[in-house]
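Two folds, back to back.
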Amino acid sequence: TSMPYKKAKKAFKRAYLLKLLQQHLGNISTAASIAGIDRRSIHRLVGSLKLPATKIRDASQPAYVRQTAVQNIVEDVLEHYKPALNQSKYKALSTHSEALSQDIAKELPEAHLSLKEAEKAFEHAYFSQLLAQGTTIAQAARKACLRYEVVHRKLKVLGIKPQNV
């Protein structure tokens, strides 16, 4: 809420698309399918948001990054419980942490939000946080650089009840 709504929404869209493209190695078709929009729309958004499309493919991380993240969590947990575990059991668990993390990573569901769902979640978080700062709708509208009516309508659509009416 430190920036106006339109600027914050543009920054959100940019971050959403960048992360989506990085997760799928720059594959526009896959990103479009997950986002629930046309492939040409992704190309237009990449251009309008000035995303470095050629660099995305080069800098993207393959799927094993997820498994590495899980492995780091498993190793941190093991390290935390090291004093409580038998030394031989700790050693056995730590040597199998890679295989264990691969199994866990395979079982974890990949939850992807469409662009519309992600935008709705962003708007809900933005306006909830804006109102949680103790502002009225009029003050929130000024801070977000939007008209009072627009903020009021968005709050109604998002199901957010203002505390200060």
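---
second:
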Amino acid sequence: VLSAIQLLFVSFVIGLFPAVALSTDAPEAGLMTRPPRDPRVPILNRSTAPVWLLVGLVMAATCLLPFAWQPLLGVPTAQTMTFAILALGTVWLAASVRRAQQPIWAGPIVPFWLWMLIPLALSVLGVELPFLQEIVGTVSLTGLQWLTVLVLSLAVPLTSEVAKAVQRRGARVGSPDNL
């Protein structure tokens, strides 16, 4: 279980920069050529709800996984790994959802990723910098633990990107050009 300070750190410190990056990012290419969203269809609908639920379940599962290893790791390390997975997963997820239809690497990437480097660095510093360790309640991780954190945190954007690829494929299959 994460402490209140860890949750606040992820929500307000880490989450701030993806919000700024998303709000100042260039619009998705071709956005104005697509028809507008039907205002009668809610944002949370049959199409979006399963994807959001799946992404949330993947985030929860990857965050809880270090606690399955708690007997080997100890509580402080399991808690720190969970904090790091949540922090990095938040950054990667923001990168994935910045483009509704295009993949995560769609440009322009420089202005967006300059903002995103800040929460990435703060995530690592929150775990490794002694004065932040005291504030946030974390412990240093080994290289293998950081590798595990990185791999687990990438499960969230990977899930989101697969869902977008499936939606893109479905849109191409159903397009008038392919009928």
